[in-house]
């Protein structure tokens, strides 16, 4: 059996492979160090560009399984990719802990007025009386109660919050006070103090957070997006924050990344922007390697693979 492995992690994976396994290395530009025409498995790595993916696939006509370390794989699912009828697995779960911690950081930053307090320190001003809040009994609406959403709920619940989640097939989940269907969350917007977007980007979720949603939120609500930028209608959000429909927002992802210096998002009031870094952690690499190795042994022994992507659904 032959595998295509990224040079970034090949040395850490190869000791766990059977002795008769052959490996072709690929760099970030898609350059292969050998013949991949008979390769059966391809592990891609983070920040994979679509032209590089297409080049590797063209070099491996007998490929059967592609594992991507990303949780979001919607950008891979082009018509030509779908035509290959590959098994696609993803890295769902490996980023859940750091992303969930980042969400809690956003919530606490807003509730405790940390940015304002830091600005006062910079100005050497001793000012009390800021509208500092606690989290007990606030309502957190998590749109997308999958692995990341559940990790967020587990941490938010420790603060005494009320948590509502949404998912395509609702079912009771630990740490959620209520789980509703894919579109039922709209009826709970008026109750939400914090709205966290943790749903995959699909045709159904593109532009999901639009003007109607933002106008339905209470004036004190705070929006957090750690999913994909295109889920939020950015002009509508700019309008909502500029005109004060909601209290603020935190975006770890935007439609066009990297965000250009000319983007109006930089100067929108009460908007906290971070550079798509909520999933960063030294432990993510090791979790990603362990997931692939486990799936590889499942693959060669005929067991069901973890994290198989429904390519029609997009996740």
Automatic annotation (TrEMBL):
InterPro entries: D-isomer_DH_NAD-bd, NAD(P)-bd_dom_sf. It comes from Anabaena azotica FACHB-119. Residues 104-278 form the D-isomer specific 2-hydroxyacid dehydrogenase NAD-binding domain. It comes from the Bacteria. CDD domains: 2-Hacid_dh_1. Keywords: NAD, Oxidoreductase. The keyword Cell inner membrane does not apply. The keyword DNA repair does not apply. PANTHER family: 2-HACID_DH_C DOMAIN-CONTAINING PROTEIN (PTHR43333), D-ISOMER SPECIFIC 2-HYDROXYACID DEHYDROGENASE NAD-BINDING DOMAIN-CONTAINING PROTEIN (PTHR43333:SF1). This is D-2-hydroxyacid dehydrogenase.
């Amino acid at each position: 059996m032959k595998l295509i492995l990224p040079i970034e992690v090949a040395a850490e994976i190869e000791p766990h492979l059977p002795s008769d396994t052959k490996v072709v290395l690929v760099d970030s530009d898609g350059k292969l160090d050998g013949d991949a025409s008979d390769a059966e498995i391809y592990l891609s790595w983070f920040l994979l560009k679509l032209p590089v993916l297409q080049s590797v696939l063209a070099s491996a006509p007998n490929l059967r399984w592609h594992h991507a370390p990303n949780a979001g794989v919607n950008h891979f699912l082009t018509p030509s990719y779908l035509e290959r009828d590959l098994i696609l697995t993803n890295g769902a779960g490996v980023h859940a802990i750091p992303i969930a911690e980042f969400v809690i950081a956003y919530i606490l930053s807003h509730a405790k007025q940390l940015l304002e307090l830091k600005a006062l320190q910079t100005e050497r001003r001793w000012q009390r009386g800021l509208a500092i809040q606690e989290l007990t009994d606030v309502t957190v609406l998590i749109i997308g109660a999958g692995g990341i959403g559940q990790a967020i709920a587990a941490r938010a619940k420790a603060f005494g919050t009320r948590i509502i989640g949404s998912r395509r097939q609702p079912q009771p989940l630990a740490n959620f006070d209520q789980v509703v269907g894919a579109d039922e969350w709209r009826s709970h917007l008026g109750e939400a103090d914090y709205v966290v977007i943790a749903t995959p980007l699909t045709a159904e979720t593109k532009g999901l957070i639009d003007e109607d949603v933002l106008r339905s939120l209470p004036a004190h609500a705070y929006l957090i997006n750690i999913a994909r930028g295109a889920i939020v209608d950015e002009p509508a959000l700019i309008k909502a924050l500029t005109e004060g429909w909601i209290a603020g927002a935190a975006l770890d992802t935007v439609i066009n990344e990297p965000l250009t210096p000319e983007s109006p998002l930089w100067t929108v009031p009460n908007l906290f922007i971070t550079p798509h870094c909520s999933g960063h952690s030294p432990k993510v690499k090791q979790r990603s390697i362990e997931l692939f190795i486990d799936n590889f042994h499942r693959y060669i022994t005929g067991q069901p693979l973890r994290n198989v992507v429904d390519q029609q659904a997009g996740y």
